UniProtKB/TrEMBL annotation:
Keyword Oxidoreductase: no
The protein, known as: Calcium uniporter protein
GO molecular function: calcium channel activity; calcium channel inhibitor activity; uniporter activity
One Pfam family it belongs to: MCU
Coiled coil: 141-168
Start and end residues of each Calcium uniporter protein C-terminal domain: 69-230
Domain-related comment: The selectivity filter, in which calcium ions are arranged in single file, is composed of two acidic rings separated by one helical turn along the central axis of the channel pore.
Main location as per UniProt: membrane
Organism: Scophthalmus maximus (Turbot)
Length: 235
């Protein structure tokens, strides 16, 4: 009597069954989560229309001419998933032949199968990234360089305007500084003339005091109004 084997081949679960009418072995690739016992029986009868197939849980006994019956095993319904059938050994009945089928050593449960699919998707994603990422980087770099060039063109008039405003501000600042220096020089000369040629130091001392005090008040008022020190900053 020929044997029925259930094992993994090329990463897939394969059932090797000898067909009664054709007298040859045929391979059936199983999809445990997607196929039911009824689907497997249909596949068997599609390959061998003369085969009457049924599946029993382990423990079924059968006489040669009688129909199969179960002692401690039970008939497996056609809606039972192959994934549930692989939990333990079972018996495949083809016409008058009974075959003991051992569950494969590695039974891929639903959760494990889902994890394998996720791992496969991840590997495919990594391969796709490795193959297409350099090209994607080049395209992205080209797009960014074009955007940078466009921004530089848009900023060119603004940069020119900024430079003009900076030059104008520097010119006016320099003029104010030199004007202030000239006024201070005139003030110093006038005070010296009044002190030594017109009046005495006793008369001019209170005048210089009040001038210094007024200058301090002016500087403090400038700070209160502008919140900035009255210093000349480099532009």
């Amino acid at each position: 009597m020929q044997n029925v084997s259930l094992k993994y081949k090329y990463g897939r679960l394969v059932l090797e069954v000898p067909l009664p009418s054709r007298n040859e072995k045929c391979l059936f690739f199983l999809r445990p989560m997607l196929m039911s016992v009824g689907d497997l029986i249909k596949d068997l009868q599609r390959e061998d229309p003369g085969a009457a197939a049924s599946i029993f849980s382990k423990g079924m006994t059968r006489t040669k001419l009688a129909r199969p019956h179960s002692s401690d095993g039970e008939h497996v319904g056609s809606t039972t998933l192959i994934d549930a059938l692989l939990d333990k050994d079972f018996q495949l009945v083809l016409n008058d032949a009974v075959y003991d089928v051992k569950a494969p050593e590695k039974v891929c449960t639903s959760s494990e199968h889902v994890m394998e699919l996720e791992d496969m998707k991840h590997v495919v994603h990594l391969l796709h990234t490795a193959l297409h990422m350099p090209e994607h980087h080049l395209l992205k770099e080209r797009e960014l360089l074009e955007k940078l060039d466009n921004l530089k063109q848009e900023l060119t008039p603004l940069e020119k305007m900024k430079q003009q405003l900076s030059n104008t501000a520097q010119f006016h600042t320099s003029r104010v500084v030199w004007t202030g220096m000239a006024l201070l020089s005139v003030q110093g000369g006038a005070l010296a003339w009044l002190t030594w040629w017109v009046y005495s130091w006793d008369v001019m001392e209170p005048v210089t005091y009040f001038i210094t005090y007024a200058t301090s008040i002016g500087v403090f008022a400038y700070y209160v109004l502008t919140k900035q020190a009255s210093l000349v900053h480099n532009t």
